[in-house]
Amino acid sequence: MTQWTRRAIVTALGAMSIVRPHAAAAAAAGATTGAGTGTWPSEPIRIVVPFAPGGSTDAVARLAAPGLQQRLGVPIIVENRSGAAGSIGTDVAAKARPDGHTWLLTFDSHALMPVLVPSLPFDLQKDLVPVTQIGRAPYVLACQPAKPYRDMADVFAAARRGGVSFGSTGNGTIGHLVMLMMAQRSGVELTHLPYRSGGLAVNDAVAGHVDLMIGSAALLAPHVSAGTLRPLMQLGSHRLNAMPAVPTATESGFPGLTAEAWWGVFAPAGVPGPIIDRFQSALIDTYREPRIAQQFTEVNQAELVLGDAPALAEFVQNQIRVWGDVARANHVRPD
């Protein structure tokens, strides 16, 4: 697998003609916003999603865009900058001018970037500040209905004969890591096919180009409902209402194993506190709108969290501890 170095990422950023000031210069420029919100927002706000369109992170961002635009009075632009386990887009957000017009909305691999990309061109904890954890959803393992798998016993029996593949939303996502754990515990090998986005992975799973698909319930639930994917196992602590017949990992022979995708919002370091507070408030109010909340929780089978910044910071530290060990033990690197 390709190991992304600082030079590789900087080269990739240059190829996309992204020009951002150095973090120190950005902080100095951001000082002009003062301690209060002033005239903020004074221009369109962009939400950087460090993954390609079509995945759950992109969908979560676009779900909130109209409500944020209504509450803040400026256009909301969702900007997809994918690559290197999310580090290319995260770098764009981390080095943006800290004036409250650029935010990062990212996925669970965020906490694993220091392990996945050893030479990051930014400091995950110093260059970004937490805003809120939007929500979480259990991972689900599914396959095309024409595939011969009905449960995990079928999967592992086929894997012992060789040639079973699974798709994920990328190396180092929790979905990838939990599949590694289950394969090791079962003494089998599974061929991993990482994709740049959940949308691309699901398309290939529905078409039957990959045997299995591991993704968040938010990503897979619409396809399960439509009958284009058959769920085999869910990795929450209990069965989802929309999938009452689908066993949990514990029920499938992996006691205590859970894995949840999550989405969180971060700001470039140096954004004034009052601006962060106002954006956080607008974000939370948007996701609490009945229509938006229903879309997020029922249609996507996800749970809204909408916690405060300290809660997100503590949560990310726990994710680094729990899943970082798995990534290091398996020498996982982004493609």
From TrEMBL:
Ribonucleoprotein listed as a keyword: no
InterPro entries in the record: BUG, Bug_dom1
Keywords: Signal
Gene3D superfamilies in alphabetical order: Bordetella uptake gene, domain 1, Periplasmic binding protein-like II
Signal peptide coordinates: 1-23
Family from the record: Belongs to the UPF0065 (bug) family.
PANTHER family in the cross-refs: BLR1237 PROTEIN, TRICARBOXYLATE-BINDING PROTEIN
Protein name: Tripartite-type tricarboxylate transporter, receptor component TctC
